[in-house]
């Protein structure tokens, strides 16, 4: 009887914790929509008394543009898939107290590795597709390991290192595409990968592919790793209190490198899946692709929960997918970026509030002591 009561109490506490963690993300979404409507009113010349009409117009256009029919829904999944990977990649780093700005570069490295491995002829699809995923793990993992090692060994700032690694990844891809036999200089791209390396599409008329399923699987696996294993416990312990974790016998340097490798590997898989499922070749890059940076917003809105990154990626993917339809309905596509920015600001505010709350508690503990 006592066990049943204890289980019920634990369940109630867990549910209460989940609901509490959802308050800020949901509130940030509502506020972002509230502000965005004023720009819709300005663009379409609504009067102030037509606020709710403008709100309904904005929401309906976003829904129709991203989920209006089967083809639009599948196209939205093309945007959602890489955001799941990059969101989960950022979540791993956040849980270890790290800010891996280099997810963009690790995603890019995953793409070029997949472009190279995808050119191998004569392989069975059941072998070639896993090799594509493995190439993304290796490429992204190595690119994450370098700043992770520098942080652990020399204490250098991972933000600065990963930003530089992003540019190195960009230029490395361009060198491979433009200056090596792998690329076709006249086309400024690599050849189309073998058909055996291309990920299965959900429909011949859509670019959506099983990369979405792969992303969901890895999100669940990372959640299991972080919350159900000793390795994940140590990573989270370092993120919560590095000195306390070290006092408890946890190796900070090892877990720092491990978190960056895992983060880079997931980002690399995302890049490999995007190339094998959507792009089929790597091109000369004039700038960053952007999925790595968008993944920051995905992870923040999900409160660094890998499974929470799935609905979070769905939201941002739907916004990106509907941008063209917004323009056709006389609504500036920049509203998408406005909504994303406000969400990030409000979610970040939650972290700031918690920071000062923890600081106040520590000061109170010292005074009482």
Summarize the helices and strands and which ones pair or pack:
Blueprint lengths: L1 H43 L6 H17 L2 H26 L7 H15 L7 H30 L3 H22 L31 H18 L1 H11 L1 H6 L4 H28 L11 H11 L7 H13 L1 H6 L5 H35 L1
Helix pairs in contact: 1-2, 1-14, 2-3, 2-12, 3-7, 3-10, 3-11, 3-12, 4-5, 4-6, 4-10, 4-11, 5-6, 5-10, 7-8, 7-10, 8-10, 11-12
Give a nutshell description of this structure.
The chain is an all-alpha fold. 76% of the residues lie in helices and 0% in strands. This is Beta-methylgalactoside transporter inner membrane component.
Structure write-up:
The protein is an all-alpha fold. The protein has one domain: Orthogonal Bundle (ABC transporter involved in vitamin B12 uptake, BtuC). The radius of gyration is 22 Å and the shape is globular.
Q: Could you name the CATH class?
A: Mainly Alpha
Terminal CA distance reads 40 Å
CATH architecture: Orthogonal Bundle
Give the total of domains: 1
Q: What do the pLDDT scores average to?
A: 88
Order of helices and strands: HHHHHHHHHHHHHH
Please outline the major beta sheet: none
Structural class: mainly alpha
Form type: globular
Say what the CATH topology is: ABC transporter involved in vitamin B12 uptake, BtuC
- Total number of helices: 14
- Stretches where pLDDT is under 50 for at least 5 consecutive residues are none
Report the radius of gyration as a whole number of Å.
Answer: 22 Å
Percentage of β-strand residues:
under 5%
Please count the beta strands (DSSP E, at least 2 residues each).
Answer: 0
Q: Name the helicity range.
A: over 70%
């Amino acid at each position: 009887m006592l066990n049943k009561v204890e289980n019920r109490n634990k369940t109630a506490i867990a549910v209460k914790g989940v609901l509490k963690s959802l308050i800020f993300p949901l509130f940030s979404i509502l506020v972002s929509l509230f502000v965005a409507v004023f720009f819709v009113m300005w663009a379409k010349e609504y009067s102030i008394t037509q606020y709710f009409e403008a709100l309904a117009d904005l929401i309906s256009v976003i829904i129709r543009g991203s989920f209006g029919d089967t083809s639009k829904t599948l196209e939205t999944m093309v945007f959602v898939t890489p955001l799941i990977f990059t969101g989960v990649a950022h979540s791993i780093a956040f849980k270890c107290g790290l800010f891996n700005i280099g997810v963009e570069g690790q995603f890019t490295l995953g793409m070029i590795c997949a472009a190279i491995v995808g050119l191998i002829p004569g392989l069975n699809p059941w072998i070639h597709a896993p090799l594509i995923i493995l190439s993304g793990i290796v490429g992204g993992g190595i690119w994450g390991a370098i700043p992770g090692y520098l942080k652990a060994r020399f204490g250098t700032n991972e933000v600065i290192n990963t930003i530089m690694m992003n540019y190195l990844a960009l230029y490395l891809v361009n060198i491979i595409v433009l200056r090596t036999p792998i690329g076709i200089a006249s086309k400024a791209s690599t050849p189309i990968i073998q058909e055996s390396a291309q990920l299965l599409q959900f429909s011949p008329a859509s670019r959506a592919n099983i990369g979405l399923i792969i992303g969901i699987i890895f999100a669940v696996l990372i959640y299991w790793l972080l919350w159900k294993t000793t390795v994940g416990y140590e990573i989270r312990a370092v993120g919560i209190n590095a000195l306390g974790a070290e006092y408890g016998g946890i190796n900070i340097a090892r877990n720092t490198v491990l978190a960056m490798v895992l983060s880079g590997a997931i980002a690399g898989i995302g890049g490999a899946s995007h190339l094998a499922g959507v792009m089929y070749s790597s091109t000369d890059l004039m700038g960053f692709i952007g999925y790595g940076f968008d993944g920051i917003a995905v992870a923040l809105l999900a409160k660094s929960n890998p499974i929470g990154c799935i609905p979070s990626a769905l939201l941002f993917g739907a916004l990106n997918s509907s941008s063209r339809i917004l323009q056709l309905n006389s609504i500036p596509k920049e509203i998408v970026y406005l909504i994303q920015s406000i969400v990030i600001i409000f979610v970040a505010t939650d972290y700031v509030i918690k920071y000062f709350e923890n600081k106040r508690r520590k000061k109170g503990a010292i005074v009482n002591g």
